[in-house]
Write a structure and sequence with these properties.
The complex is a heterodimer of chains A (310) and B (79). With 310 residues, chain A is mainly alpha-helical. Chain A is built from 14 helices and no strands. Chain A is flat and about 55 Å long. With 79 residues, chain B is mainly α. Chain B has one domain. Helices cover 52% and strands 5% of the residues of chain B. Chain B has a two-stranded antiparallel sheet with strand order 1-2. In chain B, strand 1 and strand 2 form a beta hairpin. Chain B starts with 7 loop residues before the first helix and ends with a helix. The chains are: A mainly alpha (310), B mainly alpha (79). At the A-B interface, helix 2, helix 4 and helix 6 of A face helix 1 and helix 2 of B.
Chain lengths: 310, 79
Protein backbone atom coordinates (compact mmCIF):
# COMPACT_ATOMS: atom_id res chain seq x y z
CA UNK A 1 0.00 0.00 0.00
CA UNK A 2 1.30 3.44 -0.85
CA UNK A 3 0.81 6.38 1.44
CA UNK A 4 -1.17 8.12 -1.30
CA UNK A 5 -4.32 6.47 0.01
CA UNK A 6 -3.77 8.09 3.40
CA UNK A 7 -3.12 11.51 1.98
CA UNK A 8 -6.32 11.58 -0.02
CA UNK A 9 -8.25 11.54 3.25
CA UNK A 10 -8.86 15.03 4.62
CA UNK A 11 -6.90 15.76 7.79
CA UNK A 12 -10.02 16.55 9.80
CA UNK A 13 -11.40 13.06 9.20
CA UNK A 14 -8.55 11.25 10.94
CA UNK A 15 -10.04 9.87 14.12
CA UNK A 16 -8.18 10.72 17.27
CA UNK A 17 -8.12 8.58 20.40
CA UNK A 18 -10.68 10.90 21.98
CA UNK A 19 -13.13 10.17 19.18
CA UNK A 20 -13.07 6.46 19.98
CA UNK A 21 -13.38 7.29 23.67
CA UNK A 22 -16.41 9.50 22.88
CA UNK A 23 -18.11 6.42 21.39
CA UNK A 24 -18.20 4.99 24.92
CA UNK A 25 -20.43 7.84 26.17
CA UNK A 26 -18.08 8.89 29.00
CA UNK A 27 -20.71 11.02 30.75
CA UNK A 28 -23.04 8.05 31.08
CA UNK A 29 -20.07 5.99 32.24
CA UNK A 30 -19.58 8.25 35.27
CA UNK A 31 -23.03 7.24 36.58
CA UNK A 32 -22.25 3.59 35.83
CA UNK A 33 -18.93 3.79 37.69
CA UNK A 34 -20.43 5.52 40.71
CA UNK A 35 -23.44 3.21 41.14
CA UNK A 36 -21.42 0.04 40.44
CA UNK A 37 -18.84 1.19 43.00
CA UNK A 38 -21.59 1.74 45.60
CA UNK A 39 -23.14 -1.67 44.85
CA UNK A 40 -19.76 -3.32 45.27
CA UNK A 41 -18.87 -1.55 48.53
CA UNK A 42 -22.34 -1.85 50.06
CA UNK A 43 -22.23 -5.64 49.70
CA UNK A 44 -21.68 -7.49 52.99
CA UNK A 45 -18.78 -9.46 51.48
CA UNK A 46 -15.39 -7.80 51.22
CA UNK A 47 -13.60 -7.75 47.88
CA UNK A 48 -9.86 -7.48 47.28
CA UNK A 49 -9.25 -3.79 46.43
CA UNK A 50 -7.57 -4.56 43.11
CA UNK A 51 -10.29 -6.99 42.03
CA UNK A 52 -12.88 -4.42 43.12
CA UNK A 53 -11.16 -1.80 40.97
CA UNK A 54 -11.08 -4.25 38.05
CA UNK A 55 -14.76 -5.11 38.53
CA UNK A 56 -15.82 -1.44 38.37
CA UNK A 57 -13.54 -0.90 35.37
CA UNK A 58 -15.03 -3.85 33.47
CA UNK A 59 -18.60 -2.80 34.32
CA UNK A 60 -17.77 0.70 33.01
CA UNK A 61 -16.21 -0.80 29.86
CA UNK A 62 -19.30 -2.93 29.33
CA UNK A 63 -21.45 0.19 29.66
CA UNK A 64 -19.14 2.00 27.25
CA UNK A 65 -19.32 -0.88 24.77
CA UNK A 66 -23.11 -0.74 24.76
CA UNK A 67 -22.82 3.02 24.15
CA UNK A 68 -20.63 2.38 21.09
CA UNK A 69 -23.09 -0.21 19.78
CA UNK A 70 -25.93 2.24 20.40
CA UNK A 71 -24.09 4.89 18.35
CA UNK A 72 -23.43 2.32 15.60
CA UNK A 73 -27.12 1.44 15.29
CA UNK A 74 -28.50 4.94 15.85
CA UNK A 75 -26.09 6.82 13.58
CA UNK A 76 -28.95 7.60 11.15
CA UNK A 77 -31.04 9.35 13.79
CA UNK A 78 -28.02 10.91 15.50
CA UNK A 79 -27.25 12.71 12.25
CA UNK A 80 -30.61 14.51 12.14
CA UNK A 81 -30.73 15.65 15.77
CA UNK A 82 -28.84 18.76 16.84
CA UNK A 83 -27.89 17.28 20.24
CA UNK A 84 -26.24 14.22 18.69
CA UNK A 85 -25.06 15.49 15.30
CA UNK A 86 -21.53 16.05 16.62
CA UNK A 87 -21.09 12.46 17.78
CA UNK A 88 -18.10 10.72 16.13
CA UNK A 89 -20.07 8.78 13.47
CA UNK A 90 -22.37 11.55 12.16
CA UNK A 91 -19.41 13.98 12.36
CA UNK A 92 -17.53 11.66 9.97
CA UNK A 93 -14.64 10.99 12.36
CA UNK A 94 -15.31 7.31 12.96
CA UNK A 95 -16.98 4.85 10.58
CA UNK A 96 -19.96 2.72 11.57
CA UNK A 97 -17.91 -0.45 11.10
CA UNK A 98 -15.24 0.84 13.47
CA UNK A 99 -17.87 1.61 16.11
CA UNK A 100 -19.40 -1.85 15.69
CA UNK A 101 -16.00 -3.54 15.98
CA UNK A 102 -15.07 -1.52 19.05
CA UNK A 103 -18.44 -2.19 20.70
CA UNK A 104 -18.39 -5.94 20.09
CA UNK A 105 -14.76 -6.35 21.12
CA UNK A 106 -15.14 -4.33 24.29
CA UNK A 107 -18.38 -6.15 25.17
CA UNK A 108 -16.72 -9.55 24.94
CA UNK A 109 -13.63 -8.31 26.78
CA UNK A 110 -15.62 -6.71 29.61
CA UNK A 111 -17.91 -9.72 30.17
CA UNK A 112 -15.14 -12.33 30.08
CA UNK A 113 -12.79 -10.35 32.30
CA UNK A 114 -15.50 -9.46 34.82
CA UNK A 115 -16.35 -13.15 35.02
CA UNK A 116 -12.69 -14.06 35.50
CA UNK A 117 -12.01 -11.30 38.02
CA UNK A 118 -15.11 -11.91 40.17
CA UNK A 119 -17.73 -14.52 39.24
CA UNK A 120 -19.86 -15.58 36.28
CA UNK A 121 -23.13 -14.28 37.74
CA UNK A 122 -21.67 -10.76 37.55
CA UNK A 123 -20.32 -11.48 34.05
CA UNK A 124 -23.71 -12.85 32.98
CA UNK A 125 -25.55 -9.82 34.36
CA UNK A 126 -23.19 -7.52 32.46
CA UNK A 127 -23.77 -9.51 29.26
CA UNK A 128 -27.53 -9.26 29.79
CA UNK A 129 -27.26 -5.51 30.42
CA UNK A 130 -25.41 -5.00 27.12
CA UNK A 131 -27.93 -7.22 25.30
CA UNK A 132 -30.84 -5.39 26.92
CA UNK A 133 -29.54 -1.92 26.05
CA UNK A 134 -28.44 -2.73 22.50
CA UNK A 135 -31.03 -5.24 21.29
CA UNK A 136 -34.15 -4.70 23.42
CA UNK A 137 -33.86 -0.92 23.80
CA UNK A 138 -31.83 0.44 20.88
CA UNK A 139 -32.81 -1.94 18.09
CA UNK A 140 -36.32 -2.89 19.09
CA UNK A 141 -38.28 -0.62 21.42
CA UNK A 142 -36.66 2.84 21.22
CA UNK A 143 -38.31 3.65 17.89
CA UNK A 144 -41.51 1.78 18.71
CA UNK A 145 -42.89 3.00 22.03
CA UNK A 146 -43.02 6.29 23.95
CA UNK A 147 -42.13 4.26 27.06
CA UNK A 148 -38.61 4.00 25.55
CA UNK A 149 -37.18 6.08 28.42
CA UNK A 150 -38.46 3.56 30.96
CA UNK A 151 -36.88 0.66 29.04
CA UNK A 152 -33.60 2.49 28.49
CA UNK A 153 -33.56 3.39 32.18
CA UNK A 154 -33.62 -0.30 33.09
CA UNK A 155 -30.33 -0.86 31.28
CA UNK A 156 -28.75 2.03 33.17
CA UNK A 157 -30.01 0.63 36.47
CA UNK A 158 -28.11 -2.67 36.38
CA UNK A 159 -24.60 -1.50 37.46
CA UNK A 160 -25.20 -1.45 41.26
CA UNK A 161 -26.74 -4.91 40.95
CA UNK A 162 -23.70 -6.13 38.99
CA UNK A 163 -21.35 -4.56 41.55
CA UNK A 164 -23.24 -6.36 44.32
CA UNK A 165 -23.14 -9.66 42.41
CA UNK A 166 -19.41 -9.21 41.80
CA UNK A 167 -18.85 -9.07 45.57
CA UNK A 168 -21.38 -11.61 46.82
CA UNK A 169 -22.01 -13.89 43.85
CA UNK A 170 -25.76 -13.49 44.31
CA UNK A 171 -28.79 -11.26 43.78
CA UNK A 172 -30.56 -10.00 46.91
CA UNK A 173 -33.48 -7.77 47.88
CA UNK A 174 -31.09 -4.89 48.52
CA UNK A 175 -29.49 -5.17 45.07
CA UNK A 176 -32.88 -5.42 43.34
CA UNK A 177 -34.06 -2.30 45.20
CA UNK A 178 -30.88 -0.45 44.17
CA UNK A 179 -31.77 -1.40 40.60
CA UNK A 180 -35.32 -0.07 41.14
CA UNK A 181 -33.94 3.20 42.50
CA UNK A 182 -32.21 4.11 39.22
CA UNK A 183 -34.85 2.43 37.06
CA UNK A 184 -37.74 4.46 38.52
CA UNK A 185 -35.67 7.64 38.80
CA UNK A 186 -34.85 7.79 35.06
CA UNK A 187 -38.36 8.52 33.66
CA UNK A 188 -39.23 11.55 35.86
CA UNK A 189 -35.66 12.86 35.46
CA UNK A 190 -35.78 12.68 31.67
CA UNK A 191 -39.41 13.70 31.16
CA UNK A 192 -38.87 16.82 33.29
CA UNK A 193 -36.03 17.73 30.91
CA UNK A 194 -38.26 16.97 27.91
CA UNK A 195 -40.83 19.45 29.22
CA UNK A 196 -38.50 22.45 29.15
CA UNK A 197 -36.03 21.52 26.40
CA UNK A 198 -37.37 21.36 22.89
CA UNK A 199 -35.98 18.10 21.56
CA UNK A 200 -35.87 17.21 17.90
CA UNK A 201 -36.80 13.55 18.28
CA UNK A 202 -39.65 14.19 15.84
CA UNK A 203 -37.16 14.66 13.00
CA UNK A 204 -35.66 11.31 13.93
CA UNK A 205 -39.09 9.62 14.21
CA UNK A 206 -38.42 8.54 17.79
CA UNK A 207 -41.71 8.55 19.74
CA UNK A 208 -41.43 10.73 22.83
CA UNK A 209 -44.14 10.83 25.46
CA UNK A 210 -44.42 14.64 25.28
CA UNK A 211 -45.34 14.32 21.58
CA UNK A 212 -47.28 11.05 21.37
CA UNK A 213 -49.41 11.51 24.50
CA UNK A 214 -49.03 15.22 25.09
CA UNK A 215 -47.46 17.30 27.81
CA UNK A 216 -50.41 16.87 30.21
CA UNK A 217 -49.94 13.08 30.16
CA UNK A 218 -46.18 13.54 30.65
CA UNK A 219 -46.83 15.56 33.82
CA UNK A 220 -49.08 12.78 35.14
CA UNK A 221 -46.46 10.16 34.27
CA UNK A 222 -43.82 12.15 36.21
CA UNK A 223 -46.04 12.18 39.31
CA UNK A 224 -46.90 8.47 39.11
CA UNK A 225 -43.28 7.39 38.67
CA UNK A 226 -42.16 9.70 41.49
CA UNK A 227 -44.70 8.13 43.88
CA UNK A 228 -43.48 4.64 42.92
CA UNK A 229 -39.87 5.78 43.24
CA UNK A 230 -40.45 7.14 46.76
CA UNK A 231 -41.87 3.80 47.92
CA UNK A 232 -38.90 1.84 46.60
CA UNK A 233 -36.30 4.41 47.73
CA UNK A 234 -37.59 4.44 51.30
CA UNK A 235 -38.04 0.64 51.24
CA UNK A 236 -34.35 0.31 50.41
CA UNK A 237 -33.60 1.93 53.77
CA UNK A 238 -34.98 -1.14 55.56
CA UNK A 239 -32.66 -3.60 53.82
CA UNK A 240 -29.09 -4.44 54.85
CA UNK A 241 -27.66 -1.45 52.93
CA UNK A 242 -29.91 1.04 54.74
CA UNK A 243 -29.57 2.71 58.09
CA UNK A 244 -30.55 5.88 59.94
CA UNK A 245 -28.50 8.17 57.71
CA UNK A 246 -29.87 6.68 54.49
CA UNK A 247 -33.43 6.83 55.84
CA UNK A 248 -33.03 10.49 56.82
CA UNK A 249 -31.68 11.37 53.36
CA UNK A 250 -34.37 9.29 51.62
CA UNK A 251 -37.23 10.79 53.63
CA UNK A 252 -36.07 14.36 53.05
CA UNK A 253 -35.29 14.00 49.35
CA UNK A 254 -38.39 11.99 48.53
CA UNK A 255 -40.58 14.55 50.28
CA UNK A 256 -38.97 17.30 48.17
CA UNK A 257 -39.13 15.18 45.00
CA UNK A 258 -42.80 14.37 45.55
CA UNK A 259 -43.58 18.03 46.12
CA UNK A 260 -41.72 18.91 42.91
CA UNK A 261 -43.61 16.26 40.93
CA UNK A 262 -46.90 17.45 42.39
CA UNK A 263 -46.07 21.05 41.42
CA UNK A 264 -45.33 19.94 37.86
CA UNK A 265 -48.54 17.88 37.70
CA UNK A 266 -50.89 20.60 38.89
CA UNK A 267 -49.68 23.36 36.59
CA UNK A 268 -50.55 23.79 32.93
CA UNK A 269 -48.50 24.90 29.94
CA UNK A 270 -49.51 28.54 30.29
CA UNK A 271 -48.25 28.66 33.88
CA UNK A 272 -45.02 26.93 32.90
CA UNK A 273 -44.31 29.24 30.02
CA UNK A 274 -45.13 32.27 32.18
CA UNK A 275 -42.22 31.56 34.52
CA UNK A 276 -39.99 29.88 31.90
CA UNK A 277 -40.56 26.34 33.28
CA UNK A 278 -39.20 27.20 36.72
CA UNK A 279 -40.78 24.21 38.51
CA UNK A 280 -39.66 21.77 35.80
CA UNK A 281 -36.09 23.07 35.86
CA UNK A 282 -36.00 22.97 39.65
CA UNK A 283 -37.27 19.38 39.62
CA UNK A 284 -34.65 18.37 37.05
CA UNK A 285 -31.82 19.87 39.13
CA UNK A 286 -33.17 18.15 42.24
CA UNK A 287 -33.25 14.84 40.36
CA UNK A 288 -29.47 15.03 39.85
CA UNK A 289 -28.92 15.59 43.56
CA UNK A 290 -31.52 12.93 44.39
CA UNK A 291 -29.71 10.00 42.81
CA UNK A 292 -26.25 11.12 43.89
CA UNK A 293 -27.38 11.62 47.51
CA UNK A 294 -29.17 8.27 47.73
CA UNK A 295 -26.20 6.28 46.48
CA UNK A 296 -23.84 8.52 48.46
CA UNK A 297 -25.81 7.74 51.64
CA UNK A 298 -25.59 3.99 50.90
CA UNK A 299 -21.83 4.41 50.49
CA UNK A 300 -21.52 6.26 53.80
CA UNK A 301 -23.67 3.65 55.56
CA UNK A 302 -21.38 0.93 54.16
CA UNK A 303 -18.33 2.83 55.41
CA UNK A 304 -19.85 3.37 58.85
CA UNK A 305 -20.89 -0.25 59.31
CA UNK A 306 -17.52 -1.52 58.07
CA UNK A 307 -15.60 0.66 60.50
CA UNK A 308 -17.86 -0.08 63.47
CA UNK A 309 -20.01 3.02 63.36
CA UNK A 310 -23.80 3.08 63.18
CA UNK B 1 8.91 6.60 2.31
CA UNK B 2 11.82 6.84 4.70
CA UNK B 3 11.29 5.19 8.05
CA UNK B 4 13.26 7.84 9.91
CA UNK B 5 11.42 10.82 8.45
CA UNK B 6 8.28 11.81 10.29
CA UNK B 7 5.45 11.63 7.83
CA UNK B 8 2.39 13.81 8.19
CA UNK B 9 0.43 10.64 8.88
CA UNK B 10 2.46 10.07 12.04
CA UNK B 11 1.55 13.50 13.35
CA UNK B 12 -2.12 13.06 12.50
CA UNK B 13 -2.35 9.70 14.22
CA UNK B 14 -0.09 10.45 17.18
CA UNK B 15 -2.85 10.69 19.80
CA UNK B 16 -4.43 7.51 18.48
CA UNK B 17 -1.18 5.58 18.62
CA UNK B 18 -0.19 6.89 22.05
CA UNK B 19 -3.69 6.16 23.37
CA UNK B 20 -3.63 2.64 22.00
CA UNK B 21 -0.17 2.06 23.45
CA UNK B 22 -1.25 3.22 26.89
CA UNK B 23 -4.41 1.11 26.68
CA UNK B 24 -2.39 -2.00 25.86
CA UNK B 25 0.04 -1.23 28.70
CA UNK B 26 -2.90 -0.84 31.08
CA UNK B 27 -4.34 -4.14 29.84
CA UNK B 28 -1.06 -5.93 30.61
CA UNK B 29 -0.93 -4.35 34.07
CA UNK B 30 -4.51 -5.42 34.81
CA UNK B 31 -4.00 -9.02 33.68
CA UNK B 32 -0.73 -9.19 35.64
CA UNK B 33 -2.35 -7.66 38.75
CA UNK B 34 -5.38 -9.96 38.60
CA UNK B 35 -3.14 -13.00 38.20
CA UNK B 36 -0.98 -11.96 41.16
CA UNK B 37 -4.03 -11.45 43.41
CA UNK B 38 -5.63 -14.73 42.36
CA UNK B 39 -2.44 -16.75 42.77
CA UNK B 40 -1.57 -15.19 46.14
CA UNK B 41 -5.11 -15.94 47.41
CA UNK B 42 -4.80 -19.55 46.32
CA UNK B 43 -7.67 -19.36 43.79
CA UNK B 44 -5.81 -21.70 41.49
CA UNK B 45 -4.78 -24.15 44.20
CA UNK B 46 -6.21 -27.50 43.05
CA UNK B 47 -4.90 -29.59 45.95
CA UNK B 48 -7.47 -30.90 48.47
CA UNK B 49 -7.60 -28.94 51.70
CA UNK B 50 -7.35 -30.38 55.19
CA UNK B 51 -11.14 -30.68 55.62
CA UNK B 52 -11.89 -32.61 52.43
CA UNK B 53 -12.44 -36.36 52.55
CA UNK B 54 -10.62 -38.49 50.01
CA UNK B 55 -12.47 -41.52 48.72
CA UNK B 56 -10.95 -44.61 47.15
CA UNK B 57 -12.39 -44.82 43.62
CA UNK B 58 -12.52 -48.62 43.58
CA UNK B 59 -13.90 -49.36 47.06
CA UNK B 60 -15.75 -46.06 47.65
CA UNK B 61 -14.40 -46.00 51.21
CA UNK B 62 -12.76 -42.92 52.74
CA UNK B 63 -9.00 -43.00 52.82
CA UNK B 64 -6.63 -41.08 55.01
CA UNK B 65 -5.49 -37.85 53.38
CA UNK B 66 -1.82 -37.41 52.70
CA UNK B 67 -0.56 -34.53 54.88
CA UNK B 68 -0.19 -31.36 52.89
CA UNK B 69 3.47 -30.45 52.36
CA UNK B 70 4.33 -26.79 52.25
CA UNK B 71 6.26 -25.36 49.34
CA UNK B 72 9.14 -24.39 51.64
CA UNK B 73 9.62 -27.92 52.92
CA UNK B 74 9.33 -29.28 49.36
CA UNK B 75 12.11 -26.92 48.34
CA UNK B 76 14.17 -27.97 51.35
CA UNK B 77 13.74 -31.64 50.45
CA UNK B 78 14.91 -30.90 46.94
CA UNK B 79 18.11 -29.41 48.29
Amino acid sequence: MTDASFETRPETQDAQFGDYFALLKPRVMTLVVFTAFVGLLAAPVGVHPFLGFCAVLFIALGGGASGALNMWYDSDIDAVMKRTAKRPIPAGKVTRDEALALGLTLSAFAVVFLGLATNWLAGGLLAFTIFFYVVIYTMWLKRLTPQNIVIGGAAGAFPPMIGWAAATGEISTASVLMFCLTFLWTPPHFWALALFVRMDYDNATVPMLTVTHGRRATRTHILVYTILLAAFAIGLGFTQVGGPLYLAVALLLNALFLKGAFDIWRRDEAASEADNFRAEKKFFKLSLLYLFAHFGAILVEAGLSRFGGL
Amino acid sequence: MSIAREHDLHKRRKSRNVGLGLTLAAFIMIVFGMTMVKVSRGDFDMRPDANSTLVDIETGKPVEATPRVSQQSEAADGN
